[in-house]
Amino acid sequence: xxxxxxxxxxxxxxxxxxxxxxxxxxxxxxxxxxxxxxxxxxxxxxxxxxxxxxxxxxxxxxxxxxxxxxxxxxxxxxxxxxxxxxxxxxxxxxxxxxxxxxxxxxxxxxxxxxxxxxxxxxxxxxxxxxxxxxxxxxxxxxxxxxxxxxxxxxxxxxxxxxxxxxxxxxxxxxxxxxxxxxxxxxxxxxxxxxxxxxxxxxxxxxxxxxxxxxxxxxxxxxxxxxxxxxxxxxxxxxxxxxxxxxxxxxxxxxxxxxxxxxxxxxxxxxxxxxxxxxxxxxxxxxxxxxxxxxxxxxxxxxxxxxxxxxxxxxxxxxxxxxxxxxxxxxxxxxxxxxxxxxxxxxxxxxxxxxxxxxxxxxxxxxxxxxxxxxxxxxxxxxxxxxxxxxxxxxxxxxxxxxxxxxxxxxxxxxxxxxxxxxxxxxxxxxxxxxxxxxxxxxxxxxxxxxxxxxxxxxxxxxxxxxxxxxxxxxxxxxxxxxxxxxxxxxxxxxxxxxxxxxxxxxxxxxxxxxxxxxxxxxxxxxxxxxxxxxxxxxxxxxxxxxxxxxxxxxxxxxxxxxxxxxxxxxxxxxxxxxxxxxxxxxxxxxxxxxxxxxxxxxxxxxxxxxxxxxxxxxxxxxxxxxxxxxxxxxxxxxxxxxxxxxxxxxxxxxxxxxxxxxxxxxxxxxxxxxxxxxxxxxxxxxxxxxxxxxxxxxxxxxxxxxxxxxxxxxxxxxxxxxxxxxxxxxxxxxxxxxxxxxxxxxxxxxxxxxxxxxxxxxxxxxxxxxxxxxxxxx
Length: 778
Hints:
778 residues, mainly alpha, 41 helices, 6 strands
């Protein structure tokens, strides 16, 4: 479209210069031999031809006629003006408007509408204010423009000034209040006028339906002097979407007439409420279907992950559109069938931004990070406008693999795209910085968010907690309580109780030892949060809350209190709770309690390799090597395999992955030589290997050798060699960091004077100056 407009720009100037009618600004003289001026009948015929050509997109032909006209009227100019606007050539329309000798009311109204379509309300208002004479169309256009842009007060100001209000004026201001959620004001306005048409009644009902206020919608529906099919469809779809299919069905049966939208509302309602057979029954009974009907039924199968039935329906669909293809892509991706999703993506005749976003999300959610990033790059190369969903998915991918630099580049593109920092994209950006270990940049992103929802607060609270900044987590939570945002169930489970209680203990550990009596105030504060959350927020404690409390008490050394809490719970302890108790038993070397917890875990989750390893560590630290061997035999007999540990680091725009004793990396010789130097320096500073962590009864020297080449140490060494001085070294590990590596990295942070940020499977560790942000708790 833009290229067509550009081609006609020169022709436009030529047309204006070629034959403007005489005017004070452009005086011309007709030669003696010139033909007489065209008759009114001829001008009307040419004007109709211009309009017809413009209606069919033939701007060149319209411009040619306009250029050849010996005489033009204002109607001629208006025909060209509206034609350029309807064909998307706003710049040509604007130049033409400025050249009109005597613009009339239609000229001004047409140009104001053009500015409104371009969302340039300031220019529209300037033109509006310049008009000496306005008609009802002028006033109504401005009311509608402000209403659609959410500027309700401005819309009301124009409405109040309108000298002659008609039904469109009243409907416009009513719609402004309804569309922007100001239903109480809309209702007052509605009740102040008894002469509303059916459109206004429907708008008011729709406003109540959209906000699930069905009782008030029903009340208005019952009072309507005259209903049309839109009235019935609005209420039917409202009840259906709210899950009340019995009322929706009754209204459907009572409806005096039904169209395709009535039937489709029932299909969608049954589908959204998981009533797949009823949805298909209604679909099969439909006298006529459109693409929306077919897509609703396909979406119903997709929602229930019945992809075979969805594909069968798609294959026989006579009126596929891009939404049909997108629904199938989304369904396959959500079902983990990424290859099928990609096949659909590759074979669809036309894609839109939703198609790309769905495929990127499929790769991201399926763990195919490289493919997600590659497709995101291709999306930009194809010239497709990157939407919010695509940005969110790729930011999530960067977060999952901790590619901070890539995430920053996406952040830059996000800003250039002009999306700002709304909740949807802002939350993804916030999570990316938190998961990539850049908690300070996360807080900057949090502060930049103009609007924050409960997810924003939860993410920031959880981020601080996982990074070991308990005081900051509590501070953000308290700030949240001062706003209109109320903590929800997720806040209490993830963002508040689970993370805040852990954060309290992190802080407890950071100031000293794991002694309940030394820091009873902080632990008791956490317990107080647990017991008052129902009173303060109406949230009943769930298994996640109790697990956190068991962990809190156990880690603090209050093992008896932890066991007592497990006995008093309203439900039986699960494997996660016993796992928390086993972890606490290892810390405090309580073998008897650890064995009891492990026995319960093995009954519930016999394949949980982590618990076997945890109990083995407890036996090893207690010197019970016979029991360590028994655990190894038990794992082998039950077919339980320990998950191999990996660590990775991003350097020079590439992710480098290491395993224990890695011999595949091209720089392995350089890395190991550097590790040997570091080991000597650490021992001079007092470092002693935690050989009790080795689950093999071998000589101490061999144990030290086995500990030296753990994956996280190799990754840190690689980072020291490749990440420029002054920048943090960020390492990610798929398992929890072992005690020896944790201690060693503290020494390395002092010796090398570097900030080292390690993300393990449980939390973040910020090593600096010989200490860790976790306070040796993980």
